[in-house]
Sequence to fold (278 residues):
Amino acid sequence: MASITDCVVEGLKYPFNDIKKLLGCGVLFALMSVLSLGFSLKSFGIFKASVDVMEKTNSHFSALQFSQLPTGDIYITIAIAIISFIVALFIMGYQYDIVKFSIDKKQELPGFDDILGMFIKGVKYFIVTLAYNIIPILVLAAGIALLQDSSAILVIVFIAMILFIIAFFLLIMALNNMIAHDDIRKAFDFREIIGNIANLGRGKYIGIVIFTLIVYMIIMAATSFILSLLSMAFVAAISNQAVWVSAFIAIIEGLFIDSYGALFYNRVCGSIYRESIK
Fold:
């Protein structure tokens, strides 16, 4: 049985097995980064316009009428959100294939030939992810909406966070179980999921997931720091071009960093499942 370090090291090397496919995946992440930037800018513009209207009319946000807001920006924001969700489904579909290739011990990276298949796999990935997180989401939402006591809200938030953590550890094995059998019903076969975790060892399972997350966060934090320095250098050199600099940085981050992180993380997740069924 492979050690925790072996799985992580193999995952770190895996994205470099095919640079072209790594960059192909990076295009999806770069597109998502640009869309996220556009959504943030438009949302801020709508918020600013709403504040201006409230100051001029001395009214509350709930009293604002749709016609008083920048409707064009609202429609654009909605369109960006829809496109972002579609792109996210394709990313999830590619991550589905990465896990599958890892389980099957394939060293190559998945291709992009079956676009429809990738989309369908992404839908399955999203449904399972949402299903496992729906309870903590509802608990958190209900607690914030129904409770006025700040101390009680803190308790509800704490409970929701515990539920999110439990859901996260179960979700990794649930997704792997679904992908291994290519059957969404297997994502909810709790007896098999818990059995796979027990086969690997609960301590080892939690340890390798936490270790993988630590390595992932170190990679993302280090590269984000470098990009932030690069961003400040660009802004200092190019006045009044902050938006274009932000877009350029977002593309670089998505193209190289986010794609690498996704391949690494999902490769290790597949390795975890492979070890659990030995």
About this structure: Residues 19-57 form the longest helix (39 residues).
